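Would you be willing to look carefully at the protein I have copied below?

:::
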Amino acid sequence: MRKQHRLSGKVTVTGRVKRNADGFGFLIPDKIDFPDVYLPRFTMKGVMTDDRVTASCSKERDGRYSGEIIEVVTRAAGQVVGKFKRDEIYGGGVIADDSRSWGQNLRIEPHVTKNAKDGQLVAVKILTFPESEEGFTGEVIEVMGAYGDPLLDTKQVLYEHHVPIEFTKGALDITARLPELVDEKDFLGRKDLRDKKFVTIDGATARDFDDAVYAEREPHGGFRVWVAIADVSHYVAEGNALDLCAYERGTSVYFPDMVVPMLPEKLSNGLCSLNPHLPRLALVAEMVLNIQGEVTDSSFYEAVFMSHHRLIYGEVEDMINGIENPKYNDVLPNLNLMADIARILMKKRFAEGSLDLEIPEAQLMIDASGVPIDVVRGDRLFAHRLIEELMLLANVCVARFISKSGKPSLYRIHEAPFSDSLKNLEIMAHNWGLKIRFNTEENRKGATQKSLMKMLEFVRGKPEENILSILILRSMKQAQYSADNTIGHFGLAFDDYTHFTSPIRRYPDLIVHRVLKKVILNQRHAEKGHEPREADAESDMATKGVHLSACEQRANKSERELMAIKRCRFMARHIGETLDGMITGIAKFGIFVQLRAYDIDGLVRIDTLTGDRFEFDEEKQKLIGRKTGTIISLGDLVKVKVLRADPEARQIDFEWTDQKNANAHDGKTNRFDTEERGTPQADRGRVRQARVPQHSGKSKAGPVHSKKNRKKRRRR
């Protein structure tokens, strides 16, 4: 084991690693007063989730921390569980890293398989870890067979929410008649963009690629941006059996262990997916921007193009941060240019009132048995923002273009919240000394959004940032699909907005593609003096908007329901453990606490609070003790013990273990006294992941990376 040391200008930190599916990781320090540390891909080789490591960390310009792993102190897992796959060549077997928590697959030699068969679930003792010369190896200690109940969770939720699972025979027959590859005769009449270095940027586990991007500098200043979107409408004819199936589903539904696609796999993962190095049909938005990010010109057309690389977020993040990746040298200048454009667009959007809610998105990692072994909570990387800004740009430009044409279409609208919904936020702002009044009825030039952003900026980098983002989100109305384009999008502060960029997984985007094509064709017809094509009636479009909004809500509810079940199964493994959390909700029956390590909420029932009788102040959203005057407020940091996790009831109960440290009667809290801690939300950099070891057995491990090795890897 390498001796711990401090590098010049850096600080040495010890804690647990949380590995992300994209290859980078996050270090949660042992010391709670130190912010979480982003770990780039190059330093994660050989490191598994929940390993305890020491890292050399430095503060970035934006105040966040990044680090390089010096050594693995202890291994979190001595055993793993997974699906055995026989190696037909060498006779042994492999346990695939489906959860992306190991960094590589586990190999099993023939003499230690216990005669396991393909597809069986096995328990495996780890013999050597990923950084060793032998690689990641193990031996089967038990052939477990198939698990039962957890595997039924997803199917149960699908049936409960009436999500269509099987495609009709008619839809499958149409799909079967489609070609495996793009037919060159379909290139006729399309603009050929195959010489431009388009790339796709998605997560490591993504399989359907809707969008690709490319940009150039304009000779006299400004930029030209191309956003190419899969031309699904070329293959899915309006009104046929395949189209009706897609419309019934409305959207793909994403679960931790499976996807219920809107379109059959031949289309979603094959013919329509923008897989690299293959010609694909696309609908393209080409936009010219000045240096302030304002659109000065735009055009839309059918094209044939090719994605030159399939990039993942972690790779892009590293490259735009200056970490070399020779595989992608041909597109690196373009990535840096698109990063610059994204920064300009972000600055412009936020100045105009668009909300910037940094709410970690939870993901569950499920092993082959259906049991959750991992809860991932992550902030967006700048790589996420890069692609999102270009998608927002394309969506806005398409919405403006169609709106000006006067043709009925679907728009993505988001109404301003009711004034009553913002009342709690006004109270919270007043408690912080901020004089903010929300008047959504007279929301001129994004005044309400700017007031909300003022609050967010006030708590940026403090523990309250996360809770405030959650409360703002809760105060919002739900976005919908509508034929009415007079409302705009409140959260984004856009007057015109639609969904254009994901037709493989969202039916509204497919509708927008069809409308856009009709508008383009009508322009051509008008130029030639021909009659325009007939458009759908606005009443028909309004009906579709209602249906597709309901489909989206059904999908969201299904996903949340399964997450609730799996979270309970996950927390059942932590009964009796005491964990750090923050109060995110208060009601007359108790307080809701979100755990720091995992994106999981549980309830502390009011009848379990000791030392006083608490009353709920609804107006101020506080619990106040009758005798002591103790005040329990949103954002308070607490320690809770896991009492109960019931998957059937989908409820998790906590006990508040450090209630004696609750705030005194003067109402002052210590929530803002943690500034020296750093930025536990913002400073955690890009992604926090929370994973749990499969077994308590721990192994010692030696050094994993030196500065010399790091440079060597960069040159590959």
